[in-house]
Amino acid sequence: MTDLTLTDRGEQQARDQGSMLRGHRFAMVLCSPRLRARRTSALAGYPDPAIDEEAVEWDYGGYEGITTKQIIEMRGGEPWDVWHNGVIPGATPGETPEQVQARAQRVIDKCTDCLRQGEDVLLVAHGHFLRMLAVTWAGLPIEAGAILRLETGSVCELGYEHDRQAILRWNCPPDPRVDFS
């Protein structure tokens, strides 16, 4: 499993996230065990998150560490995305979309009590996993994750709209003028 540190740009994005979230109280802070997630959490002002093994990035199996363009070339030019086509076995067997969704649901389940009490939870994790978490939260089909673009360093908010689980904000660049209360 690839476990990279943050780039200089990533470190600045994490500090920017911290500026945006400063002063906001979270009843629970969960974080992937990967280096870049833990560093992001610390730089954003949350140095002691609960490490959640379930919040790791998708296991890409034989596609680990290679780009979408390279995968398409390996497939003879046939279009590919992880949401519709899955992965192939490699050093690890990889995960199906359904397996990643099951992990996302377990993370959501850990947060449910806090959320039902009107408290907020912060999750620091990875792109494809967070996209799966969002579609799982909102009750959307797995494939809907393919259309949820998520830039590194962005902030998202899941919550409720008239007592229904909803995606409230998505792919927002850190902006300290935005009120997340």
Automatic annotation (TrEMBL):
- Report the superkingdom from the record: Bacteria
Q: Name one Pfam family in it.
A: His_Phos_1
GO MF annotation list: phosphatase activity
Query: What is the protein's given name?
Result: Mutase
